[in-house]
Design brief:
about 300 residues, alpha/beta, Rossmann fold, globular
């Protein structure tokens, strides 16, 4: 069996040794669109995280039996084309749930606790020159008693809701599909959530219903001092609207995902004036050591299931 791994760099230092027990393995750290076809020729199994696999790649690779998506979302593979040729497409679900939940709170605490300011305040020497033992110039609020809105109450959203409740937050949710009903938390419409919640976190997929779900007019509805976190998909929040609103109103934003990744060099978010209210991480919520180990283990199990057919 020939296995081709197209973008191993996304796995960091996670061990890929388990693949070599399954067959002949070609590992490429990155693969450009121009390189994809030549690299998958003769492959029985393709492993891709974000490299796009098109109908042309599939139709021109006659030996192909399985496409392993090293992620949950499979929008980078032409699944219809694969199905027509009886080629399996398998993802790995649930591997990053705990990692994303943890990063949600990491982003929140960074923004709410003004971590950037206080870290710099001490390290630049201002604290050593202080006349008093503390600094209360940047007040922070407690989660307890605050209203927390979750957009997308799937596995990750429910995990965030449970921990937020443990902190004493009053949790509500908005279902982007309109089909998700949970009796543990109050269901509200989006407008009500935006107007009433102190914290809003997004854990929804990107689709026709969620594209630009939070645009300029919606963001203006948010209450003063609100914190909005996107750990779902880029494009759910209009980033140009964020760049505008953040300099017009006291709202903080934590973004782990962007509409285009990596970030464009001239992105409007890089030019905002009120940068203290903006925290961007480079799509790392899924990347804990444990999550990457689970991911690779899941991909290997998917390949083993092919061998047992």
């Amino acid at each position: 069996m020939k296995i081709v791994i197209l973008d191993a760099l996304t796995f960091g230092d996670t061990s890929l040794s388990g693949f070599f027990e399954l067959g002949d393995v070609d590992i490429f750290q990155t693969t450009s669109p121009e390189q994809t076809q030549e690299r998958v020729i003769g492959a029985d199994v393709i492993v891709t995280n974000k490299v796009i696999i098109t109908d042309a790649h599939i139709s021109n690779t006659s030996s192909l039996k399985l496409i392993c998506v090293a992620a949950t979302g499979m929008n980078n593979v032409d699944i219809e084309a694969a199905n027509k040729r009886d080629i399996l497409v398998k993802n790995v679900s649930g591997y990053s749930t705990d990692s994303v939940i943890q990063h949600t709170f990491s982003m929140l605490f960074y923004l709410v606790g003004h971590s950037r300011y206080y870290d710099e305040y001490v390290k630049e020497g201002s604290y050593a020159k202080s006349a008093i033992f503390t600094d209360v110039s940047h007040p922070f609020f407690e989660i307890k008693g605050k209203k927390w809105g979750v957009i997308g109450l799937g596995t990750i959203g429910r995990g965030v809701a449970e921990i937020a409740s443990a902190f004493g937050a009053d949790v509500c949710y908005f279902s982007t599909s309109g089909k998700n009903h949970n009796h543990d938390y109050q269901h509200v419409e989006l407008d009500e959530m935006l107007k009433s919640c102190h914290i809003i976190s997004i854990h929804a997929p990107l689709n026709d219903k969620t594209l630009n779900l939070l645009d300029y007019e919606e963001l203006l509805m948010c209450r003063d001092g609100a914190v909005v976190l996107n750990l779902g998909r880029g494009g759910i929040i209009n980033e140009e609207a964020v760049a505008k609103v953040i300099d017009e109103k006291n709202i903080s934003f934590g973004l782990d995902v962007l509409s285009r990744e990596p970030m464009e060099e001239n992105h409007p978010l890089l030019s905002v004036k009120n940068g203290d209210n903006l925290y961007i991480t480079p799509h790392i919520a899924w990347t804990s050591i444990e999550a990457r180990d689970k991911l690779i283990a899941g991909v290997i199990e998917n390949i083993k299931s092919l061998k047992s057919r």
